[in-house]
Design goal:
Rossmann fold, alpha/beta, 7-stranded mixed β-sheet, about 250 residues, globular, 7 strands
C-alpha cells in the first residue's frame, strides 16, 4: 500500500543552499531562517537588500538569496541609510552583532534611529565579541568573565551593560522596537512574528524598526549548547527582558 507523505517543513526559498558556518549551538542559523521565512511570507526577497558588517555574520551574503552588501565595522546603518534613500521602494535591513552595533557602531545606530530612517535592523546580542575571540562587549553582563574581563565585568570601571532597546525606545522617531529570544519553541514563534512585523512596518513606510535577538555563544562562553541556552534564560533575560518596547499604531 502506497503511503503519501505531506511535506510540512522545508527550507525557505530566501536561503541559499550554502551550509551555515556558525559554531554548533549558535543561534545565528535560527535567526537567518526566521528572516528568510519572513521574506518568503511577505514575498519581498527580490526587492530586499541586506547589509552585514564585520563580525560572526560577515558571511551572511553567502546564505541569503537577496542582494547583500558588506559594510565596515559598525557602519551598516549608515550604508543602509544611503541605500534606502536612493532606492526607497526596496526593503533594506542590517544584520549586526552587539560588538558591532553597540560599540563601534553606537553613533550610527542612535542617529539612524533618531532620524527615523525607514530600515529594519536585526540586532543579535550574545553578550560577547564572538568572531574575534571572546572579548568583553558593551552588552556583557556584570560579573561575566571574558578574555578582557577575566575577573568578571566590574561596573565601577567598565560601566553597566547597555540595553539597546530601552535606549532607542526613548527616541520619538523609531516605529517598532522589540526584544526576542530563541531558547524555546514558543520564543522562536514570537521572534518570527516580530521580525515579520518589522519588515511589514517598512513596507508600510512607518519608519525605523529594530529587533534585538538574545543569542547564545557556546564557544566563547565555554558552555555546551544546552548549558548555553540555560545560561541565557537564567542570566540574560532577567537583565534584557523580552517584549515590545515601542510599536507605532494608527492615530499615535
Amino acid at each position: 500500500m502506497e503511503t503519501l507523505l505531506k511535506k510540512v517543513f522545508t527550507k525557505p526559498k530566501s536561503l541559499t543552499e550554502t551550509p551555515f558556518t556558525y559554531c554548533p549551538g549558535c543561534h545565528h542559523g535560527i535567526v537567518h531562517r526566521l528572516i528568510a521565512e519572513a521574506m518568503d511570507d511577505l514575498e519581498i526577497t527580490e526587492d530586499t537588500i541586506g547589509i552585514a558588517p564585520v563580525g560572526c555574520s560577515v558571511f551572511a551574503y553567502l546564505f541569503f538569496n537577496c542582494d547583500m552588501i558588506v559594510a565596515a565595522h559598525g557602519r551598516a546603518p549608515a550604508v543602509a541609510t544611503g541605500i534606502k534613500r536612493v532606492k526607497p521602494d526596496n526593503i533594506v535591513f542590517t544584520y549586526q552583532g552587539d560588538g558591532d552595533l553597540a560599540s563601534i557602531g553606537t553613533a550610527e545606530i542612535v542617529h539612524t534611529a533618531n532620524r527615523g530612517e525607514k530600515i529594519t535592523v536585526i540586532f543579535v546580542n550574545n553578550a560577547i565579541y564572538g568572531m574575534t575571540g571572546g572579548q568583553m562587549a558593551p552588552t556583557t553582563l556584570e560579573g561575566q568573565m571574558t578574555q578582557t574581563s577575566p575577573y568578571g565585568r566590574d561596573s565601577k570601571t567598565m560601566g553597566q551593560p547597555i540595553r539597546i532597546c530601552e535606549l532607542l525606545s526613548t527616541l520619538n522617531s523609531p516605529a517598532y522596537i522589540a526584544r526576542v529570544a530563541l531558547t524555546r519553541p514558543a520564543y522562536i514563534v514570537k521572534a518570527k512574528k516580530a521580525i515579520k512585523k518589522a519588515f511589514q512596518f517598512q513596507l508600510d513606510g512607518k519608519g525605523f524598526s529594530l529587533i534585538e535577538v538574545l543569542s547564545t555563544c557556546p564557544t566563547n562562553w565555554g558552555l555546551s549548547p544546552h548549558e548555553a541556552n540555560e545560561w541565557l534564560e537564567k542570566k540574560m533575560i532577567p537583565y534584557y527582558p523580552l517584549g515590545e518596547f515601542k510599536s507605532w499604531e494608527e492615530g499615535c
